[in-house]
Amino acid sequence: MNSPADMLNRLETLVLMGMDIPLMAVRRQIASAIDIIVHLGRLRDKTRKVLEIVEVLNCINGEIVVNPLYLFQEKECQQDGKVSGVLEKTENSLVNTQKLIKMGVKLS
Question: Which of 63, 61, 3 is nearest to 30 (CA)?
Fold first, then answer.
């Protein structure tokens, strides 16, 4: 199954294939370069939906830490076989708001 963590692992692998850089350096660079990951996935009815939105926080103890903000919650499958659901906010709040504030976005 795909996930934001899988995407980060694939990105690490791509960087390491092209250069001889320590893994920790690659992870720190990735964590500092990416703010938000929007995970799109194909469901069993062949539609694509946003399944998860996570914030990339930092590289701590050698691992990239993410903060899940929204998760797709599947509802009952409709009679025509279509998957329905909603993207629900998690209890977590956006941590890194500095860029938004600098752009004039008012956070409540």
Answer: 63
Q: Note whether 74 and 82 are within 8 A (CB).
A: no
Owner of token pair 């409540």: 108
Radius of gyration of the chain (CA): 17
Calpha distance 7→56 (Å, rounded):
12
Residue environment code for 9-42, b if the CB has 16+ CB neighbours within 10 A, otherwise e: eebbeebeeeeeeeeeebbeebbeebeebebeee
**How many whole angstroms separate alpha carbon 34 and alpha carbon 13?**
16
pTM of the complete model: 0.85
| Domain definitions of the chain by residue range | 4-103
pLDDT (tens digit, 9 = 90+) per residue, 27-69? 999 999 999 999 999 998 899 999 999 999 999 999 999 999 9
Residue type, 25: A
